[in-house]
Model the fold of this input.
Amino acid sequence: MELSSFSATYGVLAIFVVMLLKEIGVPIPVPSDLLMVGAGVQLATGAYSGVALFLALAIAVFIGASIQYFLARSAGRAVVYRLAAMVGLQAEMLDRAVARLAAGGSRAVFLGLNIPGARAAVIPAAGLAKLGFVRFALATLAGSLVFYGWHVALGYLAGPAAAALIERYSLGVIAVLVLLALAGLAVWLWMRRRGGGLRAWTEAACPACLAITAARRDRA
Done:
């Protein structure tokens, strides 16, 4: 089966499932930024429609974030902090996020979801801060779609050339993607030694995004 046929058949469904689990809070080791850039490349080749991708992302974000929000809101502070620690979210980071969301409301949710390194704490913090669900849901949809959208756009702009390379030099392209992911992992390991966490790696493999996260933590 050709790459384009595989993408058309399984691409949107696979993206939906992975993003749904990530929005629920499951630390799947598939970086969001690389997944979205890849989705943009597939979109440019006509593997699926932009409407289908948009709906898959929007539904995954809404359902997954809602589940995580209500779990955090109902489980209580102690449980949320214990679970967060298991996936590398530090209590201090959650404390800061809860305070900012309580003060800034939906605007803080939108902004937080567009800041590398802060994304992981926004949804559970919104539940702990007991933000109104409608305002939370609208801000989460808008913030996440903007964040994912520019990664998709990046892949889309490089789409035809990238797709041609994939078809012609599949092993080489895969090697480059692996190297990029390993570069992101190296930055994450450096961050981990300085107090970073697992969620930074599962949210992004982009070395620049991870470096922004490290810089923010240095200033905190």
About this structure: Residues 1-7 have pLDDT under 50 and may be disordered. The chain has one domain: 3-219. The radius of gyration is 17 Å. DSSP finds eleven helices and no strands in the chain.
